[in-house]
Every structure is written in structure tokens, then in C-alpha cells.
Amino acid sequence: MLVIASPGDPAVVPKQVSAMKEPTLKPSRPSFSSGPCAKRPGWSPAALESAFVGRSHRSAPGKARLAEVIDRTRALLGIPADYRLGIVPASDTGAVEMMLWSVLGARGVDMMAWESFGATWVTDVVKQLKLNDARVLTAEYGSLPDLRTVDCDRDVVFTWNGTTSGVCVPNGDWIKDDRQGLTICDATSAVFAMPLPWHKLDAVTWSWQKVLGGEAAHGMLALSPRAVARLESYTPPWPLPKIFRLTKGGKLNEDIFKGSTINTPSMLCVEDALDSLRWAQSAGGLAGTIERSRRNLAVIRSWVERTSWVEFLAKDPATISCTSICLSIVTEWFQKLPVEARAAAVKKLAGLLDQRGVAHDIASYAEAPPGLRIWGGATVEAADLEALTPWLDWAYAEVEQALRAG
Length: 406
Description:
- The chain is α/β, with parallel strands linked by helices.
- The protein folds into 2 domains: 10-34 and 286-405, Alpha-Beta Complex (Aspartate Aminotransferase, domain 1), CATH 3.90.1150.10; 45-281, 3-Layer(aba) Sandwich (Aspartate Aminotransferase, domain 2), CATH 3.40.640.
- It has helices at residues 60-77, 91-103, 116-128, 225-233, 267-282, 285-305, 332-335, 339-355, 382-405; strands at residues 84-89, 109-113, 134-138, 155-159, 161-162, 167-168, 183-186, 203-207, 218-223, 247-248, 251-252, 310-312, 324-329, 372-375.
- A 7-stranded mixed β-sheet has the order 1-9-8-7-4-2-3, with helices on both faces. It has a 3-stranded antiparallel β-sheet with strand order 12-13-14, covered by helices on one side.
- α6 packs parallel to α9 (382-405).
- The chain is globular, with a radius of gyration of 22 Å.
């Protein structure tokens, strides 16, 4: 997170600030939001012309479109053949909460949180489900909990990539192959950009609106055979609303994983998802989208290495996200200023870039520390990030100069 602020004690403000000339080259696409994210290169509303609208999604052609999303996704991600994959309501949030409400309580659970979304799942389990045997493993923004302390014979709930912190787990080596518990992984800002060890993950959730730049409101849920077995053998003691019900008569509702959604989907969003999946295939499939995201991180990394005032928020280089790229200002006098003043200055910095059509929506998530997030997922072009970095230097200098004059 890019942490800056307006002055509190004038004594900490530098006496001299060098003005910078405003850059002239702008990113061709200024969309760097971390969700909904940039559309795929070349996208236009014409991509939706074939959308199956005005007809029931339960008709054979409608279900065929939904099944195509499932089939294309499975093939692109290399999801094992014995895993179920379905489209569920309420985006990634709905997919995660569907699993929390449906399978937790059968055994103790380790909840991991190092940013705001992980903290949300902790709140669900501790304050809403009120599970007695819930162990919470936390870390400050920029760090991970100690993965060696995770007990995989309990259920484990975690985010693969901290969307609001820019910190991801480096790999799945810490997850036991012979675990007794289920691993429930929120992978919404990791899937299609980071390799996932499917055999170590029992329930994986994401939405179309992150790495594929799709539209909101729909979630994806992948279930291992172990997760299916839990669903069919365990009945939670609390009532489940309709949109959370994955079983029928004690058995998995297989229709959900064949294109029959629990509630009515937007066929415009479905068409957009199909367009994104076709683009991902044309971009080299999973290897291609991962490489695009890594290339984008490399652009920002190169800039950070030659820039004295900025560093990655992630403390361990192995945990730096290639999608939700978060930065910190390391200038001493900025660090001494109050957090409220830093937040105000970040808002001003982001506003300067927004007003000039250079970068939209790059202020930090509302619940995160004040800062900037730069989305580096596969739908972003590396050339646009190259064009953005001089503007970041310019906006920083502008804010610093304003604070000095303040």
C-alpha cells in the first residue's frame, strides 16, 4: 500500500521539494482496479451480441451456455476430472460462505487471515456460525501467518492471495497430502494468474470479475471428492438458505455442476465469461495468463528497484502478489505522519491520476491501510504499466509539494 499523508508537525516536512514535469504518455487503458478488473484487451460490448437473452436459462440452449463456461474453465485451469465445478450465486463471497455454512462444524477449523477478506471469513465463523473449536491464525498486512503452525487434520480456511494486502501464499507445500480436514481456499484473485495445486485443495472459490475481467454477481466453486463426501455425510446444525444448499436428499445436487444454477443467472454475464475464457485460451491458456501476470509484476518490480521512495508492502519477496500489487512509501517523514493524514494524501494522489485519465480506482480497499493497489492480472497490458510508473512518480512529487506548501 502506498502510505502517505498531509503534514501534522511542520518540522517533519522537507524544506525543499523538486517539481517534476508532468508525463505525456498515458496508459492506453487506465483501468487498474482490483475488482471488477480490466476487461480483456480489445473488449467491446459487441462481445455480448450473441448473449442468450429473453429465453429461459433452464432451456436446453441456456443450460448449454452455462455448461460451456464450466467445461472451458475446467479445461483451461486443468481441474482434475473427479472434481465438481459449478456456477453459484453472489460472486466469490457467495461461494466461500456457501462452503463455510455447509461443511464447517464437523471438526475443528483453522482460520487464516492476513487481510480484510480473510478477516471477513473469520467473522463469519467466529461471530455468525459461532463455532467453539475455531483457531484463528493472523498476521499484519504485509506478512503471512506461520504456515508451519497450520493443522491440516482440522479444516483450514484461507485466501490464496490477499487481494487487499498484496501477499500470497508462495506454494501449497504446507498442506499435507494425507490431511484429515478439508482445505477451503478463496482463490478469487489468484486463479488464472498463479498455479494452484488442486490435489491439496478441497473447495476452491473465485469469481469472473477478477483475473478474467468478467462481470460481477456470479461465483465459481470447485469441489474435491473429499469435499463432496463431507457434504453428503454431514448435516450442519443450523438452517441453510436456498442459495447455500448444495445437497438434495442427502446427496450432492449434481445439476448445479452441469449448468443448472441455484438461482437465475445473468446470461449477459455468462456471455461475457465465455468471451473472457476464449480470450484466455487464445492468450496461451493457463500458462499464457500466468506469464502475462508475472510480466506485469516484473514491470512494477523493476520500477520499485530503481525508485527510492517506494517498496512492496509484502515483506517476503516470495509472497509478493502478481495481481493485487500493493506498495508502501518508505520516506521517513511520511512514516511519521498520522494515518488519517496519510489516507487523505493517498486520496489526493489517486485523484490526480484519476482526473487525468491515467489510472482509475487504485486507492486501497476501504478496510485496508491507506495506500495504492495496482492490478497486474492477465487482462492488463505490461505496456500500460510501463506508461503508468512515471505518472506515479509525478503524482507522488505533486502531493509532496502540496504538503510542503500546506
